[in-house]
Amino acid sequence: MSKHATGDYALSCPFCEFQDHDPDFLSQHVAFCHPEDPVQTAAEEEEDEPTAAAPDDTSLYVSCPHGCGESVARAELQLHLDLHVAESVALDESGGLEGGSLDHTRATAQPSGFTDSHDEDPHLHYEEDPIAHSPDIVLEGKTTGGRRRKHRKEGTKSENKGLRKLGRAELGPYAHEKQMPSWLRKLLQTGSIENTQTKIGPNGLLVKDNVAENETSQVIPTLIELCRHDTGVQRAFFCSPRVRHIFKFMREGGFCGYRNIQMLISHIIDAQLPGHEHFSGRIPSILDLQNMIEQAWDMGINSSGRIETGGIKGTRKYIGTPEAQALFLSLGIKCTAGAFASENGYRAHDMLLQDVASYFRSGCPASLLESNEKILETDLPPIYLQHQGHSLTIVGFEINSAGDADLLVFDPMFRTSPAIQRLVGKFVKPSDPSRVLKVWRRGAPYLQKHKEFEILKLV
Are residues 139 and 49 in the same domain? Predict the structure, then answer.
């Protein structure tokens, strides 16, 4: 907690229900979330892009007033801006924190009472496709709109006649765009912008290395050390460290689904998993991924997506789990999908957390699970996670000292924070590890806003 924190007394935002113990963070929240009429300003900025306009659901999205260029669901704007504050946290030479002060006090949510137990709750059921790597069993329907998907064989032409083209609620603010702007296409054609960095090599000599501007490697080992030093963490699980944090370029639009696919591909390449030969050591660009998804549809894999989207090639339409699954299946890369929905008194986010906990426990030997080890590292792949309007990559799972569970995620909407960039490869214990971890955590306060989730696991 920062030196200006006010103990147990929570300060309230004068404009909304937000509360925090740290006055510095509250000031940052007000500056980012409540500038002069931000919703009106954002709406005016959105009007400047006529290709994004459409007659349906025009009030669903606003442009981020922070200036990242993202069109954000109006209901998620406050959280989006708070995460901008969190991503700005930096370190000084001694490990002291600079930038927006973030109190590590956990936001309140309905109690989960989560424990690191080997026993599954027999009442927590979710839809899982046990053989989703078989091309004839796939996810049907769009994920982005939060509609419930069924796991069934590919529909016939007569069955597909009942499908409708989706709108902005499911496909985002550019649902009716025929083609993305030429400047954006040119940016995406290269796949990434590379910068040349000079580093000290293993032999002590200076070497030049080309680094993608929107990629960061070795983030997971840094998160591991932060969790190890965070006294608020009871136990944490991590996937393989061979995953790159890949994030969006400024103003690129709604490509989070593609960026999460790229993160899974980065693991396939860096861990040399089956199927890595399809990529020749290179992360496909967004335009490449669009072509690959369209080719998967041509093969009859989740081809109803073409009807519902009207085609995605050259557009900024949102994609989701069915498209990610179609791409991997078309390449013979095995994956399994699961869906969770709140029903019969069971909350979707509780079922999601239980499933993710089981997944990470499956990657640990029993002796390690029964030990007092705080950090449990695995070689498991990351998980693709989809909810209404956004997707993330799950790289870890933690239980805090209060018994509540958090997902640790790579969010493509936010760049790697300066603090993490400084700690990669040369870890120095920060004065408050939890502040640095805030932008990487998604707990019940975030998850319980959504009633449906989908996941995709590489197997």
Answer: no
Question: CA-CA distance, 456 to 385, in Å (whole number)?
Answer: 7
Residue 115: alpha-carbon gap to chain centroid: 24
Phi-psi region of 425 (alpha: psi -120 to 50; beta: other; left: phi over 0): left
Q: What are phi and psi of 77, to 5 degrees?
A: -60, -45
What does the pLDDT read at residue 17? 59
Report whether pLDDT(372) > 80: yes
Domain membership flag for residue 91: yes
As a whole number of angstroms, the distance between CA 83 and CA 192 comes to 24
Q: How many domains does the chain have?
A: 2
- Burial group, residue 62, by CB count within 10 angstroms (0-12, 13-18, 19+): buried
Please tell me whether residue 254 adopts helix, strand or coil conformation. coil
Residue 419 — φ and ψ, nearest 5°? -65, -45
Same domain, 144 and 248: yes
DSSP helix/strand/coil, 457: strand
Tens of pLDDT, residues 437-451: 999 999 999 999 999
Burial 164-200 (b: 16+ CB within 10 A, else e): eebbbbbbbbbbbbeebeeebeebbeebbeeeeeeee
Instruction: Examine residue 218 and state whether it is found in any structural domain, yes or no.
Output: yes
Distance CA 309, CA 167 (A): 8
Q: pTM here?
A: 0.74
**Residue range(s) defining the domain that contains residue 298:** 127-185+214-458
Asked whether the beta carbons of 249 and 413 are under 8 A apart, the reply is: no
